[in-house]
Specification:
The structure is a single chain. This protein has 308 residues and is an alpha/beta fold. The chain has 3 domains: 80 residues, Orthogonal Bundle (Arc Repressor Mutant, subunit A), CATH 1.10.10.10; 100 residues, D-Maltodextrin-Binding Protein, domain 2, CATH 3.40.190; 107 residues, D-Maltodextrin-Binding Protein, domain 2 (3-Layer(aba) Sandwich). It is built from 13 helices and 11 strands. Helix 1 crosses helix 2 and helix 1 packs across helix 4. The longest helix is centred in the first third of the chain and has 26 residues. The mean pLDDT is 87.
Length: 308
């Protein structure tokens, strides 16, 4: 027999958690504060654990309370969407989508797509979470995100229970300003020994992308690289490279004009170009909702970058 707690009590728990107040939950549910308190007490007895720490000023979820909410929230959101869809008699997707993405990709390209998507599907609202690949995949694993666009997803996703599909490929190159290269590089095709002595710019202080480029090009990773600047933003890294701070591994399509003007120059390595795959990740066991399918289909048809 399924060990499922009373769903009416779970509904009360959900409102208390989201509103962080017994009084506000009672108002939202149109019941008394006493009824809310009794329902919570009964649910805690049923589950054999405390779900909230309560005092005179605030109500704070416990660790079991947090775990219950993470399980309940997606179900209630989907249930609400289904009920709304049945009530309106519409076949269009409705509800809330929580999407993760890299900082620059999410704040520019993906936001533009969301704007256009909502013109077609105004019943869907969005929450956009911008973070590093590992953070995005952790949020997917925990159920905090429905979808996530992940840089180098073919590499990072191996460590998480997610399904992925590649939605974009971009070539990453090592580049620096003309002035920096003229001052610091004396030969036309610098080797590993020449390069590892220079200054570098990366997205994180431990330089994962720069090290990946060296490993891809030369089969080895130099130790003690001199990282003079780091920022979790492609645009900030490109700006630092153009300003002459050092060399940076950046998407080639984002510096095409700077390459044409001669402001930035690309340094060739020993191997082929480093390809960054942006993948769309989802939790393996999670069913695809109507709104997720609509958005994924829209993205595939809209995205001018997906065929790069």
């Amino acid at each position: 027999m399924l060990n499922i707690p009373d769903l009416n009590r779970v509904k009360v728990f959900y409102f208390v958690y989201t509103l962080k107040s017994l009084v506000k939950a009672a108002e939202a549910l149109n019941i008394t504060r006493s009824a809310v308190s009794q329902s919570l007490k009964a649910l805690e007895e049923e589950m054999g654990t405390k779900l909230f720490i309560r005092d005179s000023k605030r109500i704070q979820p416990t660790v079991p309370g947090e775990a219950l909410f993470q399980s309940v929230e997606p179900f209630l959101n989907d249930l609400q969407s289904t009920v709304r869809q049945i009530e309106t008699g519409k076949k269009e997707a409705v509800g809330h989508l929580r999407i993760g993405a890299p900082q620059d990709f999410g704040s520019t390209h993906l936001t533009d797509i969301i704007i256009q998507f909502r013109k077609k599907h105004p019943q869907i609202s969005f929450e956009l979470y911008l973070a590093t690949p590992v953070s995005l995949l952790e949020q997917i694993e925990k159920g905090h995100l429905d979808l996530a666009f992940v840089d180098n997803g073919d590499i990072h996703a191996k460590n998480f229970p997610v399904s992925i599909v590649t939605v974009m490929k971009e070539s990453f190159v090592l580049a620096g300003s003309r002035e920096y290269l003229q001052k610091n590089i004396k030969r036309g095709n610098p080797n590993l020994g020449d390069l590892k002595k220079l200054d570098f710019i990366d997205y994180l202080s431990h330089a994962p992308v720069t090290k990946m480029w060296f490993r891809h090009q030369f089969g080895k990773t130099p130790t003690n690289l001199n990282i003079v600047f780091s920022a979790e933003s492609v645009r900030a890294v490109i700006a630092a490279a153009k300003g002459g701070l050092g060399l940076a591994v950046v998407p080639e399509h984002m510096i095409e004009k700077d390459i044409e003007s001669g402001r930035l120059k690309v340094i060739s390595g020993a191997g082929r170009s480093l390809i960054n795959q942006i993948v769309l990740a989802r939790r393996l066991e999670k069913p695809t909702t109507a709104r997720e399918k609509e958005f994924i289909d829209f993205y595939k048809n809209y995205s001018p970058l997906s065929n790069r």
